[in-house]
Amino acid sequence: MAPVTPVDVHPLPPGAETGAETGTETGTETGPDSAATLLQDAAAHLFNARNAGTYTAQVLQGVTAVAGRVAECTRPFTGATPAELKQRVDGVDLGTPLADTAAALEELEGVYLRDAVYFHDTKYAAHLNCPVVIPALVAEAVLSAVNSSLDTWDQSAGATMIERKLISWAAGQLQLGDSADGVFTSGGSQSNFQALLLARNQAVEWLKLDPETDGLRLPSLLEKLRIFTSADSHFSIRKSASMLGLGYDAVVSVQCGTDHRMDPAALAGELARARSEGLVPMAVVATAGTTDFGAIDPLDELAAAAREHGAWFHVDAAYGGGLMVSGRHRHLLDGIHRADSVTVDFHKTFFQPVSSSALLVRDAATLRHVRFHADYLNPAAAVDRPNQVDKSIQTTRRFDALKLWLTLRIMGADALGALFDEAIDLASSVGEVLAADPDFELAAGPQLSTLVFRYRPLQEDGGRLSEGTADRLNQDIRSAVFASGEAVVAGTTVAGRHYLKFTLLNAEAGVADIRGIIDLLRTTGASLLAAAQVSA
Ligand SMILES: *Cc1c(COP(=O)(O)O)cnc(C)c1O
Predict the structure, then answer these.
(1) Terminus-to-terminus CA distance in the chain, angstroms?
(2) Hey, what domains does the chain have and what are their CATH numbers?
């Protein structure tokens, strides 16, 4: 490693002397010499040609610490409590840096790494978090070091072209047509928000062209807009409506069938009712993979209904988007090509680290609704420059696309699809296991890779545990299992009743692993019941 020599240090900026004076006032050991030393030490931490060796060595230390931790990991969590972790983090004095990176990483082991929740573990089966693929981790190292920002061409160059190519690749997979475009986003919630923002502005534009509504002021126009989505759709749809100035009441909750897919007849009814009340259907939002049941709405039929009423058709495929590369389940997305916009979370079913998501649109021109020309950044005079800020609601933006790029270049799309297919198959097998188990009730058969179920054993009298007891018990089972760290499962409610949920995305997990979790849930439930009877 090259030693830091004074020759390498830039001359002190004029402000440095003022800093030294302030130091004298507070009585710390200062002076021109210590200010120079401080700057010299600080500059040794800058990532540049001179410090390239330091960079390699230190990043390797960090990576080695994580690899060591993962190698030793035998369960998804240690069960550390918020109070314990708060105390440990509070014990760190941020005013006093440690001697070196090794010491900081050792400290990090205690305040974070040892007690993190590990998604790669086969007994992590809770939320839509995936084990991540190594090519994407290589990309993370590259993209954060180069630190391109995807807002303008002059901060990104080739990164912009790579992002654009991936957007057209994904749009091509979904057959959105020749005019398709899109942009990477921070996640599904942001993608959904942007989609609805485009839909809202599009609707307002049309209303302004209509002589009947042209004279109305904006608030009166916004009051008329309605978004139709299933009762099972993601909460970010409702939250977006609120953030877009439409209010929660602008979202019409459309009934689902028993399979948790939106009922097209119910949608037709709601659309007709809204029209008869003089309201304007702004958007129909279908879900391709609901968060709880993995349900995929009947896309073709919903697209037709949206088209008929001039409404924007958005498909939230945050979860189901991975099916676009699936070898065996791709057909589940049939009809998605009719969407005006699609949300895809690469950080879910493409096995990418957080965050990596995209919003795709069928008509590139609709992205004009988020375009704003700032003189300092993307002046109107420079419209021929490929500035991605023109398509995004973010300004400074990470080059998250590189993760998917290296993943496709190293593994290929089929390999990603195989990983997701394996998780779907696992869910199907586990569904059979749960359905055959008299101690458990399955809320619905698996559709993608989730299972919603509860522990509700038969009682001595041959009946089931009461609903109320089952509600409390399943919440307590989930907490107790989390506290043990042996497994992590999720919880949700169905028709007001508490259930447990598996979200399976780990191709390394087998039926035996998940059976292990099921047995843990059973023994935990049985002992909680027994304890309650003893104390009652
Ligand atoms: C996860 C999810 C979202 C939200 O995505 P984030 O990346 O967490 O913001 C939206 N819709 C569905 C269906 C999801 O499963």
Answers:
(1) 68
(2) 19-101 (no CATH), 158-362 (3.40.640.10), 415-530 (3.90.1150.170)
| Residue of 129, 189, 261, 400 to test ligand 1 pocket, by largest number of atoms within 8 Å of CB | 189
Pocket of ligand 1 (CB under 6 A): 128, 187-189, 192, 234, 236, 287, 289-291, 316, 318-319, 345, 357
As to burial, measured by CB atoms within 10 angstroms (0-12 exposed, 13-18 middle, 19+ buried), residue 252 is middle
- Distance, CA 319 to ligand 1 centroid (Å)? 7
| Count of other CB atoms within 10 angstroms of residue 354 | 16
pTM: predicted TM-score of the whole model, two decimal places: 0.92
Local confidence band at 214 (pLDDT 50, 70, 90 cut-offs): confident
Q: What pLDDT, in 10s, does the model give residues 1-19? A: 444 444 444 444 444 444 3
145 in Cβ contact with 47 (< 8 Å): yes
Is residue 283 left, alpha or beta, with left meaning phi > 0 and alpha meaning psi from -120 to 50?
beta
Q: Say what the pLDDT of residue 2 is.
A: 44
Cα of 265 from ligand 1 centre, angstroms: 26
Cβ contacts of 40 within 8 Å, gap of 6 or more? 4, 6, 9
Q: Which residues pair with 493 in a beta bridge?
A: 498
The answer to whether residues 174 and 314 touch, using CB atoms and an 8 Å cutoff, is no
Q: How far is the CA of 348 from the centre of ligand 1 (A)?
A: 9
What does the DSSP assignment read for 492-516?
EEETTEEEEEEE---TT--HHHHHH
Please list, residue by residue across 187-207, b when 16 or more beta carbons sit within 10 angstroms of its beta carbon and e when fewer do.
bbbbbbbbbbbbbbbbbbeeb
